[in-house]
Recover the amino acids of this structure.
């Protein structure tokens, strides 16, 4: 249950909520603390949290989810303001109170919810000293100014709430001005985008079905298969979804299979299929012909894919559970026309959907992932037939997980060369997505999640 289900909060703070504000704040505090300590994606935690708190009404859930997402988006800025407001008391604050005060700071500072009062907070606070000085702390939060004397990395990092190391990485790749635009766009709420399942409907036919269910849509600008839903609803309750007419999929994610254009006779390996969003799209593009083998090391993801395949009516996909890709070599050596590696990555291109990853991804995480990504590419290479393609894709923004991985792979595999991306992009008039020898999607430029793609061709000799 990602944040796509929740409409923006009304300005009256919690209009329509069934619980008292103090109780809502307590639930939000509990959930924020859970996201901070578990290290798991916020959307999965929120889904699990609401399943275990079924007494919460829809307005209550909306308030809690949007408040937690908002606090995660603006966490560093809120923390700096809170430190300035509480001052020396910060060391006396219990963890539960600290998370509650971060939420309050977000509501006051970012959402401008000035109707919030100390009476709403007192039932949830543990610290007697903080209770005694609460009115003063709230006043200071409202009047606290951000120190603009920081260097550029800290100024942008605090203003838009990103860790310093991440901003410095963005600086080195995109420059200061573009980094600021990137940070702004990653803080915006992602649009709700659907991919029409062409095994069952046309784009226009899907629009008509959704219209009959009271859902207005508009066609996406880049993907010819995409529909944007301006009003945020629980899309999974619709009959058209249950019938497999569409999938929820970011527009950028839709573009990658389109640009690869697998032929109906092709043999395709989706090497890191996960729950299979792109697997399903490959099946539709191939019109249920050819052969698709979908693998992953996580069984529960492949179980999800099985359900999605049945709903979508995709019949040309074979699922194989594996320990790692090397176990495929004996059966599938030089077998596939297309090996698609949607590599496990830091996911920083999807911060709009999971702002908590700002604080869970570290420099060490990136280093570990880049080594794993290169290993996966190396194991995938022998599975590509001569004349076939090995495609490496991520949803991250960092060079270490993108270009650097490909550049480390190529000297070890002289049989592969980087294909000119213009050959794949020109037919969709998407030449602007080319970045040197690679394809790149950026949120502030393209309105999609961030993606990277390299197409590597294997020689025939």
């Amino acid at each position: 249950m990602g944040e796509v289900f929740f409409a923006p909060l009304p300005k009256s703070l919690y209009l329509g909520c069934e619980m008292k504000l103090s109780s809502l704040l307590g639930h939000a505090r509990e959930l924020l603390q859970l996201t901070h300590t578990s290290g798991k994606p916020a959307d999965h935690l929120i889904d699990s949290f609401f399943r275990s708190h079924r007494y919460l009404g829809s307005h209550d859930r909306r308030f809690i989810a949007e408040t937690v997402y908002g606090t995660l988006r603006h966490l560093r800025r809120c923390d700096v303001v809170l430190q300035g407001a509480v001052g020396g008391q910060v060391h006396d604050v219990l963890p539960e109170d600290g998370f509650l005060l971060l939420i309050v700071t977000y509501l006051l500072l970012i959402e401008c919810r000035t109707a919030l009062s100390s009476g709403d907070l007192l039932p949830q606070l543990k610290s007697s000293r903080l209770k005694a000085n609460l009115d003063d702390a709230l006043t200071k939060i409202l009047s606290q100014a951000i120190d603009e004397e920081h260097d550029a990395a800290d100024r942008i990092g605090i203003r838009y709430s990103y860790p310093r190391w991440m901003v410095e990485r963005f600086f080195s790749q995109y420059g200061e001005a573009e980094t600021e635009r990137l940070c702004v766009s990653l803080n915006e709420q992602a649009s709700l985008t659907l991919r029409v399942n062409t095994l069952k409907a046309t784009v226009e036919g899907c629009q008509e079905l959704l219209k009959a269910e009271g859902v207005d849509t508009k066609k996406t600008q880049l993907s010819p298969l995409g529909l944007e839903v301006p009003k945020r609803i629980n899309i999974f309750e619709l009959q058209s979804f249950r019938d497999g007419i569409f999938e929820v999929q970011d527009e950028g994610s839709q573009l990658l299979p389109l640009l690869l254009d697998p032929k109906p006779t092709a043999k395709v390996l989706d090497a890191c299929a996960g729950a299979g969003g792109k697997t399903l799209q490959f099946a539709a593009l191939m019109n249920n012909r050819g052969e698709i083998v979908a693998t992953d090391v996580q069984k529960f993801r492949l179980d999800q894919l099985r359900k999605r395949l049945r709903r979508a009516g995709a019949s040309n996909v074979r699922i194989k559970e594996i320990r790692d890709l090397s176990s495929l070599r004996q059966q599938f050596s030089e077998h596939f026309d297309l090996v698609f590696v949607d590599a496990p990555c830091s996911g920083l291109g999807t911060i709009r959907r999971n702002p908590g990853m700002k604080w869970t991804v570290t420099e060490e995480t990136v280093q570990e992932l880049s080594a794993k990504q290169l290993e996966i590419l190396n194991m995938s290479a022998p599975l590509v037939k001569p004349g076939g393609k090995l495609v490496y894709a991520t949803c991250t923004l960092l060079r270490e997980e993108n270009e650097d991985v490909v550049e480390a792979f190529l000297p070890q595999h002289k049989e592969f060369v980087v294909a000119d991306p213009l050959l794949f992009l020109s037919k969709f008039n998407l030449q602007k997505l080319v970045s040197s020898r690679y394809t790149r999607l950026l949120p502030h430029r393209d309105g999609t999640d961030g993606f990277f793609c390299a197409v590597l061709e294997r020689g025939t000799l």
